[in-house]
Amino acid sequence: MITTTSKTIIRQHVTRNICKYVNSDRSARVIRQKFLDYFLKDCNHQFIRSSPVVPYCDPSVAFVNAGMNQFKNIFVGNQEPKFSKVANSQKCIRVGGKHNDLNVVGTDGYHHTFFEMLGNWSFGDYFKTEACELAWKLLLDVYKLPSDRLYVTYFEGDEKLELEEDLETKEIWQSLGVRPDRIIPFGLNENFWEMGATGPCGPCTEIHYDHIGFENRSNLLNKGLFDLTELWNIVFIEYNRNIDGSISVLPNKHVDTGMGFERLTAILQDKNSNYDTDTFTYLIEAIEKNCPHLEKYKGLYGEKDWNNLDTSYRILADHLRMITTCLADGMVPEQNQKLRRIMRKCFSLSTNVFQKDGLVKELSNYVVDNLGHVYPEMERNISQIHQIIDYEEEVYKDLQKSAESEWGELVKGNEKLKHLDVLEAPSLIPAYKDLMKLKPKEINGEIAFKLYDTFGLDPSVIEKLAMSINLPFDKKQLMIELEIAKKKSKQKSEIRMNDLLHQFALESIPKTCDNSKYNYRKLENNNYEFEPLKVKVLRIIHHNEVVRKIGSDTFCSLLLDKTNLYSEAGGQASDKGIIQFDKAIFDVTETEKLNSYILHKGFLKCKSTYNLCVDSVGTLLVDKENRISIMKNHTATHLLNSVLKQLKGATCQKSSKVTENFFNLDIAIFGPKLTITDIEEIEYKINSIISKKLDVETMIIDSQKLLEYDDIITVPGEIYPEENLRLVEIKEKDRVISREPCCGTHVTNTSDIEHFSLVKMKYLGRSTVSLNGVTGHNSKMATENGSEISDEVNMLKKTVSENIDKPDVLNIAVASLRSKIIASETLLPVYIKQKCLKDLDDISKQVKTIAKVTLNEFIDMEMQNVLDSKVQTTYSNKKYIIHYLRTSMILETVPLQRATKMCKNIPVMVISYTDNVVQARCCVPKKFCTENFTADKWLQESAVKVFEGCITNVKGQSEKLVCNMKPKRVNIQDWDYLLKHSMQAAQEFVDKYL
Ligand code: SER
Fold it and tell me: Is 69 exposed, middle or buried (0-12, 13-18, 19+ CB in 10 A)?
């Protein structure tokens, strides 16, 4: 056992020892460069840039978690490598799944959510001997690490998988001079590397580094010691882990290595913690600089870090690198809940611990500054990073306001809940309430599954929740429930697999080949030509039954050997077409894809005596007009997507739908909402791209090529095929206007779109806007309609001053134009629609202001006449006034208080009726008030009773002296009758009680 004192002595000794070997320049930047120079220049490897941390083509992992991810297909033999030996430094994220370091981040000095992995690969080239030699030489000769600090491990074999001990590797290490007592075997857990639940895998050999280096500590390897850590993993990829858990041998043998860059830097800079190296110190210093009110970072861990401040420094620094990387690579919290939770954790730390708003965004600048030269996409996308951080911080703050108060109430009942961060998991509130209703004695598998499935709580949050409310929680049971659910959903989808499909497969019917859907070209006369296709009817399906023949006008589906029609995919609607047979025509109204079988739905047109039989041969023709309209709309969708990104920065496509009439694009915009000016600009930009007549090129690429582009628009969360991926590209000289992976069909030149208009815009929640666009004829029509209606509105605007004395005329004109714009189905460009509506609103306001002045004058005059007894009305005499204030103006309200104010010394009731709404007001001067005669009683027994209204008090005044009847809608045909009755009742009341 080493005592603390002896450790200190050892460390001093060690430092001297290391310094002797290490070059003077040991900055992280130089260390990374040395690795690359060694492999690329000295050892003839090719550089392959780091892939984005978003796995475009691999649904089995949520983030790129190792350097080998981008080479997975080469390993399993599905892709040809461009080079046989490559190297790079890869951005990696480990926050979930098989390799998950999230929960320990901050508690030690060497686990991270984001790290850089230095790697070299051999694709069927060198294998074990050279891989070990290359690594050993780099560490000893280039980095000058002392060999007595290094240990190596190798795979001890596994009976169950029938894998033998890797003695070959053991011997290689011996031949390289590693002492036998430093070559240690380990089992599956440590020395058999797997990317995830499935995929390429193989035995590995690891190089570990001893920070102490005093005695042989091989017995402490893989025990999680901070000063004895794994440095380099060299994997011999020979197998594939299959879905059923079995292992199969791969066609070729490959090498996949990964060295933790931050750990290597710590060793070379002689630090025990990665946070003390220059891969992190710049960030820790940036936090200190931004938060001078707080204690500085002291590098304390565990209990010594009593207030968790140093741990918070570490978490924030770690997470900032992860967040910045993800956002630079186009990942959005909208789509990735893990990223959102980690961002919220940072907002929470910066608010609660570091007490500094905007800290996260500020720190992201430092990360970009530090890593941007290695990963230029960070520099390129800095405004996107900022925009999303700002947006998320705002969402977080709003959430904070609403969730914290509710959670605060719940916490009052149970102080321990305080340790749960409701902002990281807002569904804790309904989940906790639900639990309180259930009052369980434990959180068993079933309850935990509900918390997971219904409320979306992570197992780690469920664990914390269970602890806070002192309930035992069976995490293992939850994992079992999750497995069962996974299996069930798989079974369900299998059952859903149509019976027909099953039958087709049993009969070994070949899948429908639809490659010809892309066989079209533009002729010199600018028309599109779609190749007709000879097809054979393989099956006829009527009412879900396979039949031998079908007669005229019966709706059915034909399964053909091949097709040139497009089946709905990537949001694009399916084609229409016709099949010409010898004696009949089949009208295809739609196609449906059942796995790889394509059904052509429609009707047969032929003589009533004719039947179409299986095996008939015909010619399939695409409905040209329909398809061309779809192609125009699809290319326009791409243009809209890229113009929006260019204009609004961070955006993320949620869904799209392309039909022959219009297209719809739902897109999240992280920032201010779209304005009319934005819309106008978008239309202008797209129309100018159309008029520039740019070629739309389609090329076939594979997943490796896909990773070479970083100006590509992808749908976050979408998994793209690894092979035969279609890339649709529009360029103006060398400038990329739009570049999207897409399986749809497009026009070959932007000029074919003819014209573009946005005809609908609707916000669906805070960030997502739903846009509808039209092209070609529809767009021209929309534009024409737009200018027509604009002209009408402008005309009206001009007549306002002439008609100022006729507010009703103006109001009717406004109402009629407004309903023409809103209610009609007419296609109108959104910005024209909104501009016109705004103009109409302005006219309305103008009319109202003028009408108000006129009305006030009218009221004054009318009431004076009443007082002077000039108005002939049965209900007025010198002792009281009951008056119907008749106005022809269409106004929202009539200011009755203006009328009653003029009759200060006399009980008065005034009634008005405008725009189908009756109003009444009653005032009784104090000297006339008696127990029976008050304003409220008078009104109650007359107007309120007759119109079935209700009384509202006037603020600050007694209802005995003054009160109103709440405005009430009354049908015009009932008006005269009800008015008469109410006034009669008012007079009767006055006669009786005044
Ligand atoms: N794929 C291996 C790892 O991640 C070696 O790079 O450890």
Answer: buried
Q: Tens of pLDDT along 734-750?
A: 899 999 999 999 999 99
CATH number of the 628-779 domain: 3.30.980.10
Place of tokens 């938060």: 291
* Least confident segment among 370-374, 555-559, 898-902: 898-902
Q: Tell me, what's the pLDDT at 864?
A: 85
Q: Which CATH number fits domain 499-507+535-619: 1.10.405, 2.40.30, 1.10.287, 2.30.30?
A: 2.40.30
C-beta of residue 264 within 8 angstroms of C-beta of residue 143: yes
> Which DSSP string do the residues of 596-657 spell out, in sequence order?
TEEEEEEEEEE-TT-EEETT-EEEEEE-HHHHHHHHHHHHHHHHHHHHHHHHHSSEEEEEEE
What CATH superfamily is the domain 4-276?
Answer: Bira Bifunctional Protein; Domain 2 (3.30.930.10)
Whose alpha carbon is nearest atom 4 of ligand 1? 66
Distances (CA, A) of 264 to 23, 30, 159, 284, 332: 14, 12, 34, 19, 31
What stretches of 778-875 adopt beta strand conformation (E)?
A: none
Residue 631 has pLDDT above 80, yes or no: yes
* Atom of ligand 1 lying closest to residue 195 CA: 1
C-beta of residue 622 within 8 angstroms of C-beta of residue 535: no
List the beta bridge partners of residue 92.
115
Query: What pLDDT does 629 receive?
Result: 97
CATH 2.40.110.10, applies to 855-993:
no
- Whole-number Å distance, alpha carbon 201 to ligand 1 midpoint, is 10
Between CA 805 and CA 312 the distance in angstroms is 71
- The pLDDT tens digits of the residues spanning 556-586 come to 999 999 999 999 988 999 999 999 999 999 9
Testing ligand 1's pocket by substitution, the residue of 257, 261, 262, 264 carrying the most ligand atoms inside 8 A of its CB is: 257
Is residue 109 within 8 A of residue 276, CB to CB? The reply is yes
Distance CA(809)–CA(128), nearest Å, equals 91
Summarised one tens digit per residue, pLDDT across range 437-493 is 888 888 888 888 888 887 778 787 888 888 888 888 888 888 888 777 766 655 544
- Dihedral sign computed on CA atoms, order 309, 314, 315, 320: positive
Residues 6+ apart with CB under 8 A from 408: none
Q: Which of 204, 205, 231, 238 to mutate to test the pocket of ligand 1 (most atoms within 8 A of CB)?
A: 204
CB 788 within 8 A of CB 820: no
- Sign of the Cα torsion 463, 469, 474, 480 reads negative
pTM above 0.70, yes or no: yes
